[in-house]
Design goal:
7% of the residues are buried. The longest helix has 34 residues, at 46-79. The chain has 149 residues and is mainly alpha-helical. Helix 4 (46-79) packs antiparallel against helix 5. The chain has helices at residues 7-11, 20-23, 25-35, 46-79, 87-110, 127-148.
């Protein structure tokens, strides 16, 4: 029968001291290979997203800024006694600009071309195609919901 080793002998074993650089080097290699795997992309390509952002800036950003500036301009006109502006007209004009900005947001998203080439200036020809893409993106989710009901 073999005799058990005492704890004293195992305590004197030399522990390996790793520097932080070497200790985590292999961990970083493993994580980088896991993240560099090619995924099938179903999102919006970067060039299309940039095109949408430019269109949204002009078609939604400018009317929204004008909607906020209506309050400032109205305040300046009333406080300097240039004209008497009723508050309801200030709110109505501001709401009109905000609604125009909301429509511009939708237009900016739907009118962007998904081709590598930028397309036309207004992009009106891309709206029906982009509406079909949006419907197709939500179609599988609604089909699964209808099947379970």
């Amino acid at each position: 029968m073999k005799k058990k080793q005492s704890k004293k002998k195992t305590q004197f074993k030399k522990k390996k001291n790793y520097s932080e650089k070497t200790a985590f080097a292999h961990l970083e290699e493993a994580s980088s290979t896991a993240t560099t795997q090619k995924r099938s992309s179903t999102g919006i390509p970067k060039y299309v997203a940039d095109r949408m952002a430019r269109r949204i800036f002009f078609t939604a950003g400018i009317p929204t800024i004008l909607g906020m500036s209506v309050f400032v301009v109205s305040y300046v006109i009333v406080t300097r006694n240039i004209a008497e502006i009723p508050p309801s007209s200030t709110i109505a004009i501001s709401a009109l600009f905000f609604l125009l900005g909301l429509a511009g947001l939708s237009f900016g998203i739907l009118s962007a071309s998904w081709d590598k080439e930028p397309g036309s200036f207004f992009g009106i020809e891309n709206i029906p195609m982009n509406i079909q893409r949006a419907k197709a993106a939500f179609k599988p989710a609604t089909q699964n919901f209808e099947d379970k009901s």
